[in-house]
Structure formats: structure tokens, C-alpha cells
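testing teh design pipeline on a random one, pls ignore if ur not involved
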């Protein structure tokens, strides 16, 4: 399924990833086996009968678990030690343009605060030309905090990127007894 998604033009345009079985095993197998510090999250959508179907993938990791990425973004900004990043895709083009992107991003953000208590923010760089992606982040509550050049995922793209951030919500005030 993931190989099929990665091979679809609307995904391949921005992910630029090999989609052979061997490449998917090589690049996603270590995460699935717990050999990498990142998480690959399968996104499921429930239909009116309560049946789930896979619609996308979200990758989540702490920035500092991958120092090479922290080094790449350093000319643009400093990444806090407790920052997480995400990357995401919707596999079937029929599922795009329906508001799933912001819904998925918001759900993963909420899950991040629960699953990763030390995470203080989620910081996501996006190719400036990928308007749908950065608009989905905005609709999910992320704020643009920086712009600058980063190595593009797809060599056909210019290096221009925008960077978005969402901070952990402040705890609700306790009602004194």
C-alpha cells in the first residue's frame, strides 16, 4: 500500500521517494521494527458504518534524534531540544482537497502532546511551492515562523522553504479547592 501511495504523482511530486518493495522495506522497515527513533503512523478514516480504511501516513520524530536535519536548518533557525517534526501524505488523490490534511495534522498534534510529554513544540519545514501542505498546517493552527533555503526533497524544486510551528498548549488553570 505504501509503495502504491509513494508512486502516485501527487505524492511523488513532494516526497520524491523510491517506491519499489525493496526501497520501502529499506526506508520504512527500520521504523516498523523499532530500530529507528521515529514513528510511522498509519492514518485511518472511519466510514459511516464504522469501518476503517487507510488514507495516509504521518512520520513523527524529535528533531535532535536526527542531527543532520538540525544542522541543515541551523542557518534559518535554532531548533529547541524538545521539538518534534512531522511529515505527512494522503495516499489516494480522491481523498485530497476534502479537508483531511488539516484534520490529520491537528489529530497528530493532539496525539503528540499526549504520547510525548516532553515535546514542547512541533516544527515543520515545507517546500515553499507546496502551498497545499503549508495551508493545511495553517488550518491546523500552526504559525509560520521562518523562511529560508533548505535542500529540497525533490531536486526539481528550488531550495525555498517555509517553516511552521505549533507550541504545546498551556495547561488549563486548576480550580483551587
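output:
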Amino acid at each position: 500500500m505504501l509503495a502504491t501511495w509513494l508512486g502516485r504523482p501527487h505524492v511523488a511530486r513532494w516526497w520524491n521517494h523510491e517506491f519499489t518493495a525493496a526501497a520501502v522495506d529499506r526506508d520504512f522497515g527500520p521504523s516498523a521494527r523499532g530500530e529507528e527513533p521515529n514513528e510511522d503512523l498509519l492514518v485511518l478514516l472511519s466510514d459511516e458504518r464504522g469501518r476503517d480504511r487507510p488514507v495516509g501516513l504521518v512520520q513523527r520524530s524529535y528533531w535532535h534524534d536526527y542531527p543532520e536535519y538540525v544542522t541543515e536548518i541551523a542557518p534559518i533557525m535554532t531548533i529547541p531540544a524538545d521539538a518534534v517534526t512531522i511529515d505527512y501524505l494522503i495516499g489516494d488523490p480522491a481523498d485530497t482537497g476534502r479537508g483531511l490534511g488539516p484534520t490529520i495534522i491537528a489529530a497528530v498534534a493532539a496525539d503528540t502532546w499526549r504520547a510525548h510529554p516532553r515535546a514542547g513544540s512541533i516544527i515543520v519545514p515545507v517546500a515553499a511551492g507546496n502551498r497545499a501542505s503549508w495551508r493545511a498546517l495553517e488550518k491546523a493552527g500552526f504559525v509560520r515562523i521562518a523562511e529560508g533555503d533548505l535542500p529540497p526533497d525533490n531536486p526539481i524544486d528550488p531550495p525555498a522553504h517555509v517553516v511552521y510551528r505549533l507550541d504545546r498548549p498551556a495547561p488549563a488553570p486548576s480550580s483551587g479547592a
